[in-house]
Amino acid sequence: MIIKILMLVIFFSVMIGVGFYCRKNATDVNGFVLGGRIVGPWLTAFAYGTSYFSAVIFVGYAGQFGWKYGIASTWIGIGNALLGSMLAWRVLGRRTRIMSQHLDSATMPEFFGKRFDSKALKLFASLIVFVFMIPYTASLYNGLSRLFGMAFNIDYTVCIIAMAILTGVYVIAGGYMATAINDFIQGIIMLFGIVAVIVAVLNSRGGFLSSLEQLAEVSDESVSTVPGIFNSFFGPDPVNLIGVVILTSLGTWGLPQMVQKFYAIKSEQSITKGTIISTLFAGVVAGGCYFLGGFGRLFSDSVDVGTQGFDAIIPAMLSSLSPALIGLVVILVLSASMSTLSSLVITSASTLTIDFIKGNLIKDMKEKNQVLWIRVLIVVFIAISVVLAVIQYRSNVTFIAQLMGVSWGAMAGAFLAPFLYGLYWKRTTKAGCGGCFIFGAGFMIYNLLFRGTLPVLLQSPINAGAFTMLAGLIIVPVVSLITAKPDEAKTDQIFECYKHKNEVPVTQSLE
Questions:
Q1: What percent of the chain has pLDDT over 70?
Q2: What is the DSSP string of 422-489?
Q3: Domains, the chain, with CATH or none
Q4: Which of 135, 286, 387, 500 has the fewest Cβ atoms within 10 angstroms?
Q5: Rg (CA), the chain
Q6: pLDDT tens digits for 95-135?
């Protein structure tokens, strides 16, 4: 117990220290929200990765999908690395950095407002972020209760409040730069932690090959009658597996807290290096989490999924580890949760301040007042997320849990296509974007309230989220082509940012 407590004290002390160290970088909006747009490749890549993977992935998704698909769930981690990280950086990174600076936009709703010259789009986007970001934030606390109960016998409410306060302190003090540096530290912990946990868990079952042999002997006729199905290449349900891969991989392309990382990149070289670092990070962390979860059925004698739920699978796999490793796991999950929480609350608070309050509720808001409002709203968002998490835990309010499930799909379904086309296609119209906003958010709300009326394949919030993202890629161009063209002069002026010529050393370009 002393070892575990000491590890936590050191961890929290470093996080708080970094927050106060970065105060000098958080005096204006550009510094507080974007780190002055001078963040290097390592910090940006780790900030992207740690915002991507939270306790929801490690405890919830890894256990749930590992149980459903067996070792084939590793494909989800591979998809996260190749589609959610590498391709996202290659397709979005450079253009997002250039156009967002050209438009002087610090948030995704502000980007939509200036790119399409529409205050309505900006307000609509900020409303979607506000509505769906809070339940997503509350979901980050899921999974911590069982791990802390196993390691410390601490009440879940105390754990939630402590984590929220400590995260709030370093985010409010140091802004985005503090978040980025802490994300880097937390990312290192996640990398080493997941590798150590996989080795320890598999060794407890006789090693990798022995674990595979045992998994091949597992059968569940309610899922499949094929022998060794949980040890197979694509698992028992490849169709739904593809849906999970699409949602968790392409989803990052439309999530404000993920895309906003590209706003702050320092240089062209940072994008190239960041792509490699981010891909490797996602491969190890996401691939490792889902790979570990794939062996969950070997521990069916320690957990009753029917009564305890999928969140109990990973803690059951870890319960027999040494105290030092359990302490490492707790810090790993804390790192994953705090890094994502910090990213979400700074995105939510900056969006509400810059895109909704400024210019609407307060007409003339000075720079210092904007930073103050962002800091106050960070406290508000964290407090609301804590209340929701405690209510769900103590009252078992399933509606909140369902709302958490649709929040990712709603934001990604609403924003992915408009943002992508907005970066690349001059013909994109505000009507096309607005139509995608309505469809993405509306379809996920419909899935939440009237799930039983949908086709069986779309009743799952995961499949529904994947459907809204893919549908948006069709809706935006179709609506844009049948509605009035945007002002060519304004559009040309916006896309002029890509034509600006820079001289670079031959080490960067031979031309």
A1: 95
A2: HHH-TT--HHHHHHHHHHHHHHHHHHHHSGGGS-GGGSSHHHHHHHHHHHHHHHHHHHHHHSPPP-HH
A3: 2-395 (1.20.1730.10)
A4: 500
A5: 22
A6: 999 999 899 998 999 999 999 999 999 999 999 998 888 87
Distances (CA, A) of 367 to 26, 163, 282, 372: 11, 29, 36, 9
Residue 202 structure tokens: 């598999």
Task: State how far the Cα of 155 lies from the Cα of 149, in Å rounded to an integer.
Answer: 7
A 10 A CB-CB count for 224 gives 16
Residue 397 has pLDDT above 60, yes or no: no
pLDDT of residue 510: 67
> pLDDT tens digits, residue range 478-490?
999 999 999 999 9
- Rounded Cα distance between 312 and 326, Å, is 15
Residue 230 CA to residue 69 CA, distance in Å, equals 6
Render 153-180 in DSSP notation, one character per residue: ---HHHHHHHHHHHHHHHHHHHHHHHHH
Residues with Cβ within 8 Å of 12's Cβ and at least 6 positions away in sequence, in order, are 166
Closest CA to 458 of 193, 218, 450: 450
Chain segment 52-86, per-residue pLDDT in tens = 887 778 877 888 899 999 999 999 999 999 999 99
**In whole angstroms, what is the distance from residue 273 CA to residue 41 CA?**
6
CB-CB contact of 263 with 34 (8 Å): yes
Distance CA 365, CA 354 (A): 9
DSSP-assigned beta bridge partners for residue 224: 220
- Output phi, psi for 362, to 5 deg: -120, 110
Residues in the chain: 511
Q: What is the pTM of this model?
A: 0.88
